């Protein structure tokens, strides 16, 4: 049996025909104004598609379609087991379109094709399949009211759910919002980032092919200040799930107050502390920090960008990280051997380079990287960058960079490590590296973060919630807890008359 040849991703990319129109009420539509925006690849600047520039009128049409679908119960009225079967067909379609979706993701936001194939597509399918399987396993409750009454507590879909997702994991973040919302019987209007809208549009096509009724899933591409703002302000959207920056998350809360007080769930940024004690496996901690920081070009809200290392092992840790740098040099994202791809666009490239300059200016020591590379490709690439001698009050230690930049901060003892780790506006994730089980539990409890990893990082599953505290937001994606965001609890009280 011969092994099939490896795909030529450049040839496949050249042959792609991409439809950039919105998906509203079960059909592809141009924007009401007829306007489009250019979707260009950060790999080489090629034009991928002219994408519909959705504005308020388009959001109105999408929300009206979602409301009509919800009110006539074409989806919400289906038995949960029937919704499950349709969602499972959708997952089958996604897996059948694996190569196409991975290629769209790579071209659109610059991640390596090997990661899109091995991570983004299968995890999105796993997420949607898991929620499909959960659809007919959500039970209600009865309250202990006494013999003369029966109080039923049931979950009902909230109605029309708005979802605004970021550009760094477009397909996966969309699946985190869509899975529980659709499994529970809601209708959805999805606004993908204008930086990476293509897989969201294709997912909607596949959903319709699988049998999700028209109007149940609508996708309106466009800019945040136009389509995103219109969705967040809409009076007929019942709940809004947002993943993105803390700055924009604040606006989502303002928009809810200015409109119908819709519930808003924000999953926002991070500046995760990765704490390495002297008794840890320092070599493994260094490998893990480098791999987690430079994966996806550092464009991950939970990236361990703030590494706190005990002063006695800090030099060895830095040497371990530097030894990993050759594995993470930027390359052609369409080459299956590439591990670090392109920054999503020129604006984000400038942001990353500005933070690197701030690190230099404030006195941190750049011990690796720090430069733009591969300029002749026409794309946006930055070397994996490591700063040592960072103080916790420096800009690169305080603000989310969203690029492949790791900062090393040295500490003296456990109390200082905890103080520095918690001295942040963010609280998304953290890590504790130690061979002392008492310290592991002690420090994990002391850290203010939504997830604390112990002697590992980025191990994950759909069965556990994802989200943070403080300015990392109040949202929890994944797990059964995600249903809390897209369902209402209803109490039905029945008085039981005594026997005559």
> What is the CA–CA distance across the termini?
80 Å
* Average pLDDT over all residues: 97
| Sequence stretches where pLDDT stays below 50 over 5 or more residues | none
Structural class: alpha/beta
Q: Helix share of residues?
A: 25-40%
What report would you give on this structure?
The protein is globular. It is built from 15 helices and 23 strands. The strands form seven sheets. The chain has a seven-stranded mixed β-sheet, with helices on both faces. A five-stranded parallel β-sheet has the order 9-8-7-10-11, sandwiched between helices. The protein is of the alpha/beta class. Helix content is 37%, strand content 20%. Helix 3 runs antiparallel to helix 5.
Give a brief rundown of this model.
The protein has helices at residues 9-15, 56-71, 80-96, 98-109, 113-134, 170-183, 198-210, 224-233, 246-258, 282-294, 314-324, 346-361, 395-398, 414-422, 437-446; strands at residues 22-24, 27-29, 36-40, 47-52, 141-143, 149-157, 160-164, 187-191, 217-219, 239-243, 263-267, 273-276, 306-310, 365-368, 372-373, 381-382, 385-388, 405-411, 426-427, 429-433, 451-454, 469-470, 487-495.
Any key phrases for this structure?
five-stranded parallel sheet; globular; alpha/beta; seven-stranded mixed sheet; single chain; 500 residues
Topology, pairings included?
Blueprint: H1 9-15, E1 22-24, E2 27-29, E3 36-40, E4 47-52, H2 56-71, H3 80-96, H4 98-109, H5 113-134, E5 141-143, E6 149-157, E7 160-164, H6 170-183, E8 187-191, H7 198-210, E9 217-219, H8 224-233, E10 239-243, H9 246-258, E11 263-267, E12 273-276, H10 282-294, E13 306-310, H11 314-324, H12 346-361, E14 365-368, E15 372-373, E16 381-382, E17 385-388, H13 395-398, E18 405-411, H14 414-422, E19 426-427, E20 429-433, H15 437-446, E21 451-454, E22 469-470, E23 487-495
Parallel strand pairs: 7-8, 7-10, 8-9, 10-11, 12-13, 12-20, 13-18, 17-18, 20-21
Antiparallel strand pairs: 1-2, 3-4, 5-6, 6-23, 14-17, 15-16, 19-22
Helix pairs in contact: 2-8, 3-5, 3-7, 4-5, 4-7, 5-6, 10-11
């Amino acid at each position: 049996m011969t092994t099939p040849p490896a795909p030529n991703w450049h040839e496949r990319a050249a042959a792609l025909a991409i439809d950039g129109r919105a998906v509203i009420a079960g059909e592809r539509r141009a924007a009401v104004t007829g306007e489009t925006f250019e979707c260009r690849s950060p790999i080489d600047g090629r034009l991928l598609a002219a994408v519909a520039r959705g504005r308020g009128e388009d959001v109105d049409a999408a929300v009206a379609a979602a409301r009509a679908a919800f009110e006539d119960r074409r989806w919400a009225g289906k038995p949960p087991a029937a919704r499950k079967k349709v969602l499972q067909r959708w997952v089958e379609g996604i897996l059948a379109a694996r190569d196409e979706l991975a290629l769209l993701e790579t071209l659109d936001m610059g991640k390596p094709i090997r990661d899109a194939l091995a991570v983004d597509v299968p995890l999105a399918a796993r997420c949607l399949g898991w929620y499909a399987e959960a659809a007919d396993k959500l039970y209600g409750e009865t309250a202990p009211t006494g013999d003369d009454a029966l109080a039923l507590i049931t979950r009902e879909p909230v109605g029309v759910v708005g979802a605004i997702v970021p550009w760094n994991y477009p397909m996966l973040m969309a699946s985190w919002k869509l899975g529980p919302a659709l499994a529970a019987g809601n209708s959805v209007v999805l606004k993908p980032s204008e930086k990476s809208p293509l897989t969201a549009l294709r997912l909607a096509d596949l959903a319709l092919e699988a049998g999700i009724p028209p109007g149940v899933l609508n996708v309106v591409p466009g800019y945040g200040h136009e389509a995103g703002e219109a969705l967040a302000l809409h009076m007929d959207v019942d709940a809004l799930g947002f993943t993105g920056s803390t700055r924009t998350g604040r606006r989502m809360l303002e928009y809810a107050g200015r409109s119908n007080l819709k519930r808003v769930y924000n999953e926002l940024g991070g500046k995760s502390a990765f704490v390495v004690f002297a008794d840890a496996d320092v070599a493994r901690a260094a490998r893990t920090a480098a791999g987690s920081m430079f994966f996806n070009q550092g464009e991950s809200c939970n990236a361990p960008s703030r590494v706190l290392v005990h002063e006695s092992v800090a030099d060895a840790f830095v040497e371990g990280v530097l030894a990993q740098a050759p594995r993470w040099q930027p390359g052609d994202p369409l080459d299956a051997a590439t591990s670090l791809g392109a920054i999503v666009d020129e604006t984000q490239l400038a942001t990353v380079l500005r933070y690197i300059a701030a690190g230099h200016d404030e006195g941190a020591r750049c011990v690796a990287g720090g430069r733009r590379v591969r300029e002749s490709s026409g794309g946006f690439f930055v070397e994996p960058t490591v700063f040592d001698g960072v103080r916790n009050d420096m800009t690169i230690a305080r603000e989310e960079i969203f690029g492949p930049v790791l900062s090393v901060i040295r500490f003296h003892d456990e109390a200082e490590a905890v103080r520095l780790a918690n001295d942040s506006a963010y609280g998304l994730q953290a890590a504790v590296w130690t061979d002392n089980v008492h310290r592991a539990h002690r420090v994990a409890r002391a850290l203010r973060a939504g997830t604390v990893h112990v002697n590992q990082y980025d191990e994950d599953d759909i069965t556990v919630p994802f989200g943070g505290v403080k300015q990392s937001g109040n949202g929890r994606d994944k797990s059964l807890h995600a249903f809390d965001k897209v369902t209402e609890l209803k109490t039905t009280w029945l008085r039981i008359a005594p026997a005559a």
